[in-house]
Amino acid sequence: MLCQAQQEEEDIMVETDLFDIMYSCRSMRRLKTDPVPFELIHKVIEAGTQGPSGGGVQAWRFVVVAEQQVKEQIAEIYLRGWRGAEANYAKAGLTPENSKNVRAAAYLAEHLAEAPVLLIPCLRARKSHAARLNGPHRETFLRILGGSIYPAIQNMLLACRALGLGASLTTITTLYEDEMRKILDLPEFITTYALIPIGYPKGKFGPVTRRPVEEVAWLNRYGKAFPQQGDTKNP
Ligand SMILES: Cc1cc2nc3c(=O)[nH]c(=O)nc-3n(C[C@H](O)[C@H](O)[C@H](O)COP(=O)(O)O)c2cc1C
Angle between the 68-91 and 100-111 helix axes, to the nearest 10 degrees? Predict the structure, then answer.
């Protein structure tokens, strides 16, 4: 028999094993409106800042939006962006009626302002960026730039899962950077990279669905089979 504290912990599905956390860290887009203590959001951001960044510079910055009016302004932008994304999904034959993922994404777009917290991971531009953007390795630089914030983002998603908080990685608002800049008073050297709505989940966490390793990993040369799980032969 569980005591009340244990039962509450069970109910919000707090998790401690790293692999269980990763394997059940799916996008939780249906969120309760119950407030999330800032102490937990602090913990989530701190987990993010344990991630790696280019040169260890830690140019990440995080804007936490909890004020209703600001959330509504952002939600309006998000919904506009979602309408475009929704049309693209429809062209590919995916609709809220036949795709669980599109249905959940549509729900989030229509209820974003209800999420207790919108966490917006940003990067601060460095003086060296302008030179690199105008240099011969521009394309490579653009390819790796997000690598200084996405590890932090993944850490934060995992931390949310560990704490029993629902969260999802979204990027639609990055299409409207100028509008986001005005709403959030962002200085010109700050760029947003994502938006993570956070709240207690309405549904239960469950396993993520992913392609098996055998379909996505190769050994030594692209296209050469990587050993199956349980294959004891040393490669
Ligand atoms: C780069 C990137 C951008 C994404 N942008 C959005 C988004 O704007 N809106 C959204 O609802 N989900 C977004 N997602 C979440 C993916 O749709 C989701 O992770 C994927 O469908 C797998 O589902 P799962 O996380 O539930 O396992 C994004 C994910 C990534 C990695």
Answer: 150
Three-state DSSP at 167 gives strand
The whole domain housing 69 covers 22-216
- State in Å: Cα 6 to ligand 1 middle: 32
Phi and psi, residue 143, nearest 5°: -65, -35
> Coil, strand or helix: which one is 176?
helix
The answer as to whether 235 is a domain residue is: no
Decide: 108 in ligand 1 pocket, CB within 6 A: yes
CATH number at residue 186: 3.40.109.10
CB-based contact 54:146 (threshold 8 Å): no
Q: Count the domains in the chain.
A: 1
Q: Does some domain include residue 231?
A: no
Closest ligand 1 atom to the C-alpha of 173?
8
CB 121 within 8 A of CB 149: yes
Model confidence over 57-75: pLDDT tens digits? 999 999 999 999 999 999 9
Ligand 1 test: best mutation among 145, 169, 196, most atoms within 8 Å of CB? 169
pLDDT tens for each residue of 173-232: 999 999 999 999 999 999 999 999 999 999 999 999 999 999 999 999 999 999 988 886
Q: Is residue 16 part of a domain?
A: no
Residue nearest atom 8 in ligand 1 by C-alpha distance: 170
Q: Which amino acid is at 186?
A: L
Specify the 3-state DSSP secondary structure of 217.
coil
Residue 11, in any domain of the structure = no
The Cα 77–Cα 55 span in angstroms is 34
